[in-house]
Amino acid sequence: MKRxxxxxxxxxxxxxxxxxxxxxxxxxxxxxxxxxxxxxxxxAYNIVKGLMPEILSPMQLIFLRLLGGAFIFWLFQRLFVPxxxxxxxxxxxxxxxxFGFALNQALFYEGLNLSTPVDASLIHVLNPxxxxxxxxxxxxxxxxxxxxxxxxxxxxxxxILVLYGRHISFNGEHALGNILIFLNLVxxxxxxxxxxxxxxxxxxxxxxxxxSFFGFIFIFPFSIKPALEINFSAIPxxxxxxIIYIIVLNTFLAYLLINFALKSLTTTVVSYYSxxxxxxxxxxxxxxxxxxITGPKIVAxxxxxxxxxxxxxxxxxxxxxxxx
Length: 324
Fold this sequence. Notes:
Blueprint: H1 7-13, H2 17-22, H3 26-51, H4 58-80, H5 87-114, H6 117-123, H7 127-138, H8 145-163, H9 173-199, H10 204-228, H11 237-262, H12 267-272, H13 276-287, H14 295-312, H15 317-321
Helix pairs in contact: 3-11, 3-13, 4-5, 4-10, 4-11, 5-9, 5-10, 6-8, 7-9, 8-14
């Protein structure tokens, strides 16, 4: 085999690859973390929808997810990062736990149970916009024309991907489900913004230990009764694999990666990666033969990645002067 053809593979086979990864810039690591999170969240939509409501109700699934997530975060932090938190910061961690774990996830599951993954993807276009507004109001992140333009381009691309050739319903239960999903976005955006100042003060696992703990405490009174009604023996093996995915990957690993990325990137950049979820889902469908490459999909991809460029571009002095 030619040497050139082995170049990419040899990087992964190199025993010093971990050292190479360690030496990467923190911003590059943060972007890799967000790409991994995007993949995890992209798979989770259909996994969650497949579990509800036939196998588990939304509150039953929320109980298992938050209980499992809180246990893993607590154990991981105790073993590897035995760090203490100042009492004054526990109040903000409790607020973040309520917004980012309890309300965020409960509203999303209840909403998705009544709505569809397509509707949810459409509503999630608002996520970076909400984060940008909250970040500007609460922690003083500047809104530049380039950043706003990047979000607008990305939103346009996502709208093309989600709406092209599909029927969106906003009637009946769908309307209530979509309202709940929108509220889920509001609380998740607040979580990203409010947790940002704490990221520079404590280790990521320490923050998530307390946030997940408080999130479970807040949701416990509403979910304990449905949880006691779970017939564990009736849950099939495939469903258990989905539950494990939601607890280990969609909760523990995804939140770990998001908080890690917040150390090096702004909240607006972190939230922008939600626009890549429908794009990656489209690429996966083409790869496995369930979709085709079309003109609108190419245009959508160009818009999304143009938005990535603008949102990630470092602002110049002129951009700062022309902040919105």
